[in-house]
Amino acid sequence: MADISSDEYILERYLPTPMEQYFQRKLPDLDQAELLIRIVEFLKGLTLMGSDRGDILFADCIDTIWHYWILQTEQYAQLCSALSHGRFRHHSSVDYPLLERENLDARRELNRRVAFFVSYVHAFGAMEARRLRYWPALELLMATLRWDLRKTNTYLRAKAERLVA
Questions:
Q1: Taking the domains of the chain in order of start, what are their residue ranges?
Q2: pTM, to two decimals
Q3: Secondary structure of 11-46 in the HEC alphabet?
Q4: How confident is the model at residue 106 (pLDDT cuts 50, 70, 90)?
């Protein structure tokens, strides 16, 4: 049985060969491994964001993947349909005023971010050190709490286990 949380499965399921070639042309300075990990982290993020219109939690380099994918409107619509939530995920610049963004108080925003990373760990396993740089919101949370990655993963896993219990 395929591990649906693996990079290989995610890429095979959601990244058609023409899109991979497109990204190689758009980002020629990236080696193949770096390009694919960025695409995987983008796909994980998009899967977990669903219809949530809050601020984007991943790094600018991952947002760049999103921007390039959106330019291929037909393929982007197909991707959104194929994801587990099946909904088109709109993209808004952080500079564009959204009522939802303006009404988030600090505690609700913190809870939203924690919930996102609990979902990430639940769906894809523990956050790996090599992937942490793609998630500055988690790095900031860790720095604020003065937690290392081990403690963070322990906390997120415990919260995720409560979701399924």
A1: 1-97, 104-165
A2: 0.86
A3: HHHHCCHHHHHHHHHHCCCCCHHHHHHHHHHHHHHH
A4: confident
